Amino acid sequence: MNTPKPVSLQRNMIANYLGRGWSALMGLAFIPMYARLMGVEAMGVIGLFVTLQALCLLLDAGLSTTLNRELARMSLFKDSAETMRNLVRTFEAPFWVSSFIGGLIVFAAAPVIAHHWVHVQVISPNAVQMAIRLMGLVLFFQLPLSLYGGGLLGLQRQIEYSLLNALWYTLRFAGAICALKLFGPTLLTFFAWQVFVSIFATGLNAVALWRALPKTNSRARFDSSLLGSRWKFAAGLGGISITLLVLNNVDKVILSRAVTLQAFGYYTLAWTLANAVRLLADPLYITFFPRMSQAWASGDALELARLYHTVCRMMAIAIVPLGLTMAFFAPEAVLCWTRSSVMVENTSALVRLLAIGNVCLALTIVPYALQLASGWTSLALWSNLAAAGILVPLMAVLASAYGTLGGGIAWMVLNGTYLIVTVGLMHRRLLPGHLRHWALTDVGQTLLGVVILLGVARLVLPQAHTPVAALVVLFLVFALAQVTAVMASPLRSQIGGKLKGMLAGARS
Asked: Inter-axis angle of helices 125-142 and 187-212, to 10 degrees?
């Protein structure tokens, strides 16, 4: 085995949180401005784009995560430079072909979607059709971004990845506002700008990955044997990705047909706010998945278990306070974000349901990462297939009966079920005897403490009716929830030691 250059997990985690935090800030800061400039119905079109974007990730077929895992594992061994470069080239070719197919399908389907699927009231169907065709171009250039990003993460270039991601989100969100004000607040302007940003971001990430790979004297080449030796994991992961994308987007697909484009626009706004919980969870996965893959490959069971429980505790501290604050104080969160009582009326209940669902989802991410690190993909695949068979008809019934609220209910039920069922099955095989420790110590203590605190706070504090009052309430309860999460966690002594060290360093 090779002795790779040590990689600082703390440095990578800070970089990932700063990068993801900036990305979340861009979305939260500018999406309400899109609604004010273009109207809520235009937000429905943007929500449709997000859904199509997610569905086109089916074409990834697990290649980006496979590349992440394989580059992390190969970096442990000597004389792997040529194989690593050939692997990237081999994955690159089919990925671009798949991206072309996905973009072409969206481009060709634009008339059907614009005139026969969505229910337009204000924007003309022809304008929606042109916007969807531009979406096809965006998807063609943007989808390969996940492959190059996966490669950078596998090489543990999290700082570089985070900087590139922050630049992309800045251009994508802030740049779009500049374009809308310069060239007119239309969907055509918005998506034309997204085409330009996608070309720029994907090209930049491609250059960064190839520069980060070990240098060799020979040119990288396509090697079909590298695909053949990894097809089983990639196929299993591709199946998981397909079923996950169906589960994660069936609400949006059904709702885009079942409700008006304006109602779907409100759902998109609620989803954007609640998704901040998921964005806060992603940096831990990004930081620790390569290290978990290395620990599994090295056969160090004790280190793997220690790493797993530590990351689960960190995940609970990171996402439970934010997610449950958003759920208990949804009206204040929406009012503080949008400064609109109309938005509060139309999205608060949705935010509450989606936030709870996202907390449950985030708590499954580390167990899922361990499954992928071990190469065991069948549990997630079969669980997703079973869930899809139940959720799709259930979602259709809920959407018909409750409209957009049906989507929120389905999302909460789906992820709550996953948290209860699949995590237990994962522990039984990969970490037998550790389920009770995970449920009671890693997650349960933090969850119980925060729920009690926020429940009491919601009973005591009246609902805020101005943005300033909402901000004060949110700051107070979130700060208390975060302190409670740390104090209830087994990591409190380590966190306290880190804070004391930082304070001592600042004073010196």
From this structure: 0
Residue 422's contacts (CB-CB under 8 Å, 6 or more residues apart) are 364, 367, 379, 380, 383
Does residue 4 register a pLDDT over 50? no
The predicted pLDDT at position 3 comes to 45
Cβ atoms within 10 Å of 378's Cβ, excluding its own: 11
pLDDT one-digit tens code per residue, 428-478: 999 998 999 999 999 999 999 999 999 999 999 999 989 999 999 999 999
SS3 call for 39 = coil
Residue 310's nearest CA partner among 299, 321, 325, 295 is 295
The answer to whether the CB of 351 falls within 8 A of the CB of 489 is no
Q: Rounded CA gap, 179 and 191, in Å?
A: 10
Give the Cα separation of 447 and 439 in Å (integer).
10
Output the six-digit token pair for 437: 């420790």
DSSP state of 215: P
Helices (H), 213-300: 224-228, 231-258, 261-274, 276-298
- In single-letter form, the type of residue at position 19 comes to G
Triad 483, 488, 493: Cα angle to 5°: 85
- Residue 7, Cβ neighbours under 10 Å: how many? 16
Handedness of CA 123, 180, 133, 276 (dihedral sign): negative
Alpha-carbon distance 293 to 375, whole Å?
A: 9
Q: What is the pTM of this model?
A: 0.73
d(CA 475, CA 280): 17
Least Cα distance to 4 among 304, 310, 293 occurs for 293
**For helices 144-154 and 63-74, what crossing angle results, to 10°?**
20
- Asked whether residue 239 carries a pLDDT value surpassing 80, the answer given is no
CA distance 75 to 77: 6
For helices 187-212 and 40-56, the axis angle rounded to 10 degrees is 30
